[in-house]
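User: Hey, quick favor. My workstation is busy. Could you predict this chain's structure for me?
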Amino acid sequence: MRLQLGSRIRARRRQLSLTLKTVSEHSGLSVPYLSQLERNQANPTVTSLAGIARALGVSLNFFIPGQERSAVVVRAGEDGYLSVREIPFRIKSLAGRGGSLQMEPLLIHVEPHFSSPPSTHLGEEFLYVLSGELRLRVGEECYLLGAGDSAQHASTTPHAWENPGAAEALILWVGTPKLL
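Assistant: No problem, here it is.
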């Protein structure tokens, strides 16, 4: 059984523990209109859906029935690294484009001596250090993580990364909502 559009919106909003008011503020749509949409009493425009998608941290494909796959598989040896000039990371998606799937697993190579500014966003993050070291700051707390260490935190808390070592750090990162 497929969920109707309103039910998909409500389920995602609740998954993120957001109020209608918060979604309203981030989407530019009124609370009464969002409530009508969630109860399948109104039909949104594409522009409205784009605002809701932005507020819920999903792509427009999230709202299209029939786009889901049972599983997304990425085979060993498939190159899919993304390099961003502004940050010294090489990032590889470990699950490809999963349609409406909300978790995003990434393999991230963090260059030596890299330090990020604090950031916040919706969702949560899990990271597992495969090799090297990573200093993780979450709120006022600071953790030095080595190979085999892991951490999980709400992304709404200011957080930052630093590779204090002279070697690259390799991190398995899983978060919501999807970044790529």
